[in-house]
Amino acid sequence: MAKNTQSQIDKVTELKDQASAKFDKAVTASEKKIFDEAVTLISELEKTTDGKIKPSVANLKRLAQIRTKLAKVANNKDYLQAVKELAGEFDRIYQAQAQYFASLTREMHHESKYATMKQLAVENTVGGLAGAGLQSNVTDKLNDMLLRAVTSGAKYADLVEEMRTYLRGDGEHPGALTRYASTYTVTALGQYAGQNNKLLTDDLGCEWFEYTGSEIETTREFCEHLCKKRWIHKSEIPEILKGHIEGHNCKIYAKTKLPYGLIEGTNAENFQVNVGGWNCRHQLVPVAKEMVPQEIRAKFEKPQQQPQNEPSEGWKRVMREYGTQIEELKAWTRNGFTEVETAIFEDRTQEYEPLRDAYYRAYSQMVKLKEPLWTAQTKLTRLGNKAAKEGRQDLADKATATIDANKVTAPASRADLQRRISALETAIQEIKAALNATPKAAPKAADGTAMQTKEITMATLRIHKLMPKAEIFEKRAKYLQRTLKVQKEDAEHYVEAIESYTGNYYDSMRAVQMGDIKDRDLMRSAEHLEEFIRKSPKWGGGTTYRGIYRWEQSDVAQFTTAQATRMPIQMYGCSSWSTSKEEAKDFAMKDGEYHILFICKGGQPRGTSIAGFSRYPQEQEILCSKDGKWMIDKIYQPDPTDDTYYEIEVTPC
Prior knowledge:
- The chain is an alpha+beta fold.
- The chain folds into 5 domains: 2-200, no CATH class; 206-301, no CATH class; 313-431, no CATH class; 455-535, no CATH class; 544-652, Toxin ADP-ribosyltransferase, Chain A, domain 1 (Alpha-Beta Complex).
- 57% of the residues lie in helices and 10% in strands.
- A 4-stranded mixed sheet has the order 8-10-14-13.
- A hairpin with a 4-residue loop joins strand 5 and strand 6 (258-259).
- The longest helix has 41 residues, at 2-42.
- The protein starts with a helix and ends with a strand.
């Protein structure tokens, strides 16, 4: 069995190597075509009697023609056919991996994830090898070389030789297309296999891996030592990424603080995908623990504990406090630990099944108890933001202080949770009353007249202030029924979904869409929201912004990797964007160590404006579908001295 399983792992490596070798042959032939055509084209440039290229207007005009022709030659018929055939290799790799995965589990968990991963990998590879990637990494540099030669009056013979070295190589180093395409292909195939391995690892909770793959002349020090080690326990990965492998210390690149060759931002979470870096031919394959030699496993196995038939004192306390007649587990906890969680961790190692089932029931009860706390925190946060925008910083500070004072950061009893909820609700009522008691004058322009905002926002504000809630709902539903040509019941569902999403259920609805929690009512509401977006006119009114807070440096690194590999990003659930950069940036700066502002120029083909329906019309909100995808074009820090704030320019795809 182990021998057969190993052959299945080796089959994946073999398929990857065969696919890249076959594509390399097509690339070499294409390089020759590009070089021959380039030499023919530049022979038409005007030259002086001593063989130098004239820095003339006529030559500059010819360069524009040459640039267009070179782009066509680079994407010649044979090369594009090779790219198409390479795309087909992803399916062969998946089929080989599926055979191996079947040896570990009887069913493929979340099979749709694998299909989506394959589709994205193929799209990115084709785009990188036959689209903008080829242009920016090969033909653009060739065009720069020609422009420099013309403007400087270089010798024609020197230009031909420089082009030959660049496009065909010098015997020791390969040509530009081979260098780029080979690295891109090997990395794309390797990362695709790694992504599938990661999905399986997450589904099955695998703890053991085999580091395997083909060795080449340029195999890195890091990979050489990991191949010798071969078997890796998941707990070893953080130390491995520091370069510590079985007593050997790999050289570390100062910039990335990782062993030489590894992709910047590689960490324990994405190591299975990135493995040894660009052009790496290895895999970190999840394996059954039975494949690992016993003497290696023994170092990581803990002594078996005898089942305990009696609950601990902590668990007895939980049983008395919360009871056992409660619903099934709904979601994981947030904001620290409660008394219930403490008891669960205390008894976690026990094998006694009735107790283990009781843990989950108590967890559900704990989540149910904390839900009003989360709702109150969300309400007070939004109210504090509103107060700040209206110039009532004292009320905004009061909201922040109340939230901070009532976060659950230590074990808490039922009575303590209720006390915190009451404190939050009291603050909500007091701040609401203070805001309503403050007369709000319209902002004045320089000439003393009232400033006008967008008509739809003003109309919405008037509705919020002057009309009863039921009348607002009815008016909005009728508007959607008329404009979207839908049934009255559907229109009402859409309005309810928008109010829920822009109100107290923003986090919950996104969590449902991501599969983190299961709730029938929230699921229906999320489906209505998606249906509303599909049927509504799409946003084409200009640049939109999305502020994100509570990011970590590793997240920024992953965005950098996504940009480099041309991998689209998603927002995981419906996402709110704004036409106001100030609003989005204010939101991004709310909390956390790192702050990100996404900037999407143009339109949002999977988004629609809800400024007339949102509970916060001043946000000028554009709501995008959970299926929205964006390609990262640029990542930068507007202020070089501030390494906590990033702006990321994206294009919808």
